[in-house]
């Protein structure tokens, strides 16, 4: 009976140790959080057929939604194919970001304009 209780105690200690390591891992690997009055933008430049754009944007969304990074997504499209342009606009809409030309990036990263959002290229 004593052996069973020792095993249970050892398992509880190991589980607590693993939980502490995982919590420390998340804290150490999480990017720095922006301070009050600052914003972080992930600007993704897409051109041509924009292969891999969806995977990249979904990765950024995962970072944001998991709490690992507080960022807003800007997709800057230059010389996109019509299909890629519509995919990029849809992705920006789905992730709460904006789709614009590279020249429009400064406009959308200004605080007042970001709150209004939504370039329809």
Description:
The protein has 121 residues and is α/β, with parallel strands linked by helices. It contains five helices and three strands. The protein has helices at residues 2-29, 53-65, 82-95, 105-108, 111-116, and strands at 41-48, 72-80, 98-100. It has a three-stranded parallel β-sheet with strand order 1-2-3, with helices on one face. Helix 2 packs parallel to helix 3. The chain is elongated, with a radius of gyration of 21 Å. The relative contact order is 0.13. The model has no long low-confidence stretch (mean pLDDT 83).
Q: Give, in order, the helices and strands.
A: HEHEHEHH
How much helix is in the residues? Answer: 40-55%
Number of DSSP strand runs: 3
| Continuous helix count | 5
* Measured distance between first and last alpha carbons: 72 Å
Using the CA coordinates, give the radius of gyration.
Answer: 21 Å
The main sheet comes to: 3 strands, parallel
Average pLDDT for all residues = 83
β-strand percent reads 15-25%
Unreliably modeled segments:
none
How is the largest sheet built, in terms of strand order? 1-2-3
Bulk shape: elongated
Structural classification = alpha/beta
């Amino acid at each position: 009976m004593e052996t069973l209780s020792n095993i249970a105690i050892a398992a509880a200690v190991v589980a607590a140790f693993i939980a502490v390591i995982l919590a420390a891992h998340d804290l150490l690997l999480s990017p720095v959080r922006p301070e009050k009055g600052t914003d972080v933008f992930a600007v993704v430049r897409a051109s041509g057929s924009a292969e891999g754009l969806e995977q990249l944007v979904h990765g950024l969304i995962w970072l944001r939604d998991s709490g690992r990074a507080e960022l807003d997504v800007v997709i800057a499209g230059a010389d996109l194919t019509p299909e890629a342009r519509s995919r990029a606009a849809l992705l920006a809409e789905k992730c709460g970001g904006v789709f614009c030309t590279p020249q429009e990036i400064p406009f959308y990263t200004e605080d007042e304009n970001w709150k209004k959002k939504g370039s329809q290229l």
